[in-house]
Amino acid sequence: MSGPNAGDAVTPVASELDLRSFLEQVRKARPSDVLDVGREVDPNHETAAILTKLEAKQRSPILLFSQVRGCEWPLATNVCGSMGRLALALGCGIKDVASRYAMAATSTIAPVVVENALVQRVVHRGADVDLGRFPALRYHTDDAPHPYLTAAVVVARDPDDGITNLSFHRLMIASRNTAGIFIEPGRHLDGIVRKCAARGQDVPVAVFLGAHPAWSLGALYAGRADVDEFDVIGGLLGAPLAVTRCLLDPQLRVPARAEFVLEGVISTTERMVEGPFGEFTGYGTGQTESPVLRIDAVSHREDPIVQDIVSGHLEHLVLSMPALEHRALRDARAAVAGVTRVALVAPLTAVVALQKQHDEEPARIIEAMLDDVYAKQVIVVDDDVDPSDLAKVLTAMALQCQPATAVRVFHGMRGTPLDPSCDHPEGLGSKLGIDATRPLAPKREVTRNRIPQEVLDRVDLAELLAKPGRSV
Fold this sequence. Notes:
Helix content is 27%, strand content 26%.
């Protein structure tokens, strides 16, 4: 166990946190953030269309669909579709989400195992397994004709050290008990699959759906492979997460209060055509040959709620932001201590603000950060530039650097096949680094336009604007 409270029992409050408790919390604290849709909706594009139209009106509520055509269960989507709701789930302010996440990543708390879990109240095995009971959700015009599960968190154990890995993966339902699972090359689950394949073994896994936002944020932790994401979830909750042993492989654990658990194996020999699927970049990237996930048992709570993430929309982007920015800031600071802020301003693009001490520091930051598969462009600016303000970043790029010396292109680096410009099956391609910082010893004198502060202080705008038309 790790963390200061690793041996503590689960507190009553922490033990009751789940998707349902969070929905009730939002209803009480932010009632306008929940929209109940009582009429029947079509899972084929309509749920995604409703969210799309709401976002066009600058609204991003949780959508609760009580009647989804062809499905006996209600559907919740966009649960984590605003930074305000993530802050509510973590018990902090919006501006403190990043620091709260960083604290949880270093003050982890191991889970505790419980029996008689709510998620195992109803169990289906063998021939009784039917993935067709889930809503047949499709999102975009060019997506595959098969339905998808998008809020699925896969639980797997590393065969070398037994460390549990949690990660989100899209699942394309292919039959009553099989799905295609997209696994990003170079990530932890890909490594686990490769290790098991070398042993001639399939990969025992569990998949849970229906999660408290803290569980989802912990599952997205992007750090060392020897960190158990269940421990990170404990750090985010401030108490151990209650987990239960799986039915088929007791070495695997899942949250005891999840809505659904699917148990089975990822085949290391069978693959299927999966996709296309519109991803977080806003683009679909064609079909892939993905491993087959075979499901041998499904368990769920009584009257379960299906959770969904509409791909490419706010929830897909907002939910991953704390974890990705935490990793980006950590990697940048590991390279140069003077890094103050990191902003992920666009897909695969990071801007780093730096209090520079040496002119070679930006190059060190760029090389370190481009090792991440989700970093394709890294721009380094001075600390007086807000890295989240694209106009100021572009100004720094235009006025603070010469492309011939400040722009570097790196070839043959691992990226992501989700990048629509990448045509390599493993995601290999080129990456870009830009040093948009001012040289510490410029070859000619350059000064910023400034008005003396004492003159600015003498200007009283309230007096000037008090009476329109007044002559001054």
